[in-house]
Amino acid sequence: MGDKRKFRIGQPVMVNLNHQVLADYDSENYRRVKRSVDWHGHNIETNERVLAIITGVKLFQEGYYNKGTSRGIFNPEDEYEAPYLSVHESITTWAVRLGYRNKEIYFFEKDMETIKSSSNIPYLYTGWNDHYKEKMSKESKDWPRDAKGRWSK
């Protein structure tokens, strides 16, 4: 019975930021776990893959959310039912960091790609690649400036 894990903690991988996992509720209070692109249509302009380090695993639960009977005011004479999530499925995701000071973000296993490199992640990932630098440079030329060339409101 060999170990069937595809990834290990501390392993460098390549991820597409458009495919990070989000959990959100639909119109019927059903909690769903999907990629951010599929769920909200969030799409980062560049579709480049980014270097990340695996930091762990997280289980997300899907199921119906019951709001309970609390209305924000506690009255000991009223019947009280606490809110709860009735779980129908648990989904395993991988936690990765893009920089040592960045928060963990989550991806499905199929959206991660192993790399054979000893590359390391930066101390703080900011996302400022050449595409965004050029874009900001072009946009900043049209911003209003005062007589000394400083940006004005």
Question: How is this structure best described in words?
Answer:
The chain has helices at 36-39, 130-140; strands at 12-16, 21-25, 30-35, 49-66, 84-97, 105-107, 112-114. By secondary structure, the protein is mostly beta strands. The protein has one domain (12-140). Strands 1, 2, 3, 4, 5, 6 and 7 form a seven-stranded antiparallel sheet that branches. Strand 2 and strand 3 (30-35) form a beta hairpin. It starts with 11 loop residues before the first strand and ends in a 13-residue tail after the last helix.
In summary, what is this structure?
The chain is mainly beta.
Protein topology:
Layout: E1 12-16, E2 21-25, E3 30-35, H1 36-39, E4 49-66, E5 84-97, E6 105-107, E7 112-114, H2 130-140
Antiparallel strand pairs: 1-4, 1-7, 2-3, 3-4, 4-5, 5-6
Keywords:
153 residues, mainly beta, 7-stranded antiparallel β-sheet, 35% strand, flat
The value of Rg in angstroms is 22 Å
Overall geometric form: flat
The figure for the number of domains is 1
Largest sheet: 7 strands, antiparallel
The helix fraction, in percent, is: under 10%
Residues in β-strands, percent = 35-45%
Structural class: mainly beta
- Individual helix count: 2
Distance between the termini: 66 Å
H/E order of the elements? Answer: EEEHEEEEH
Arithmetic mean pLDDT: 80
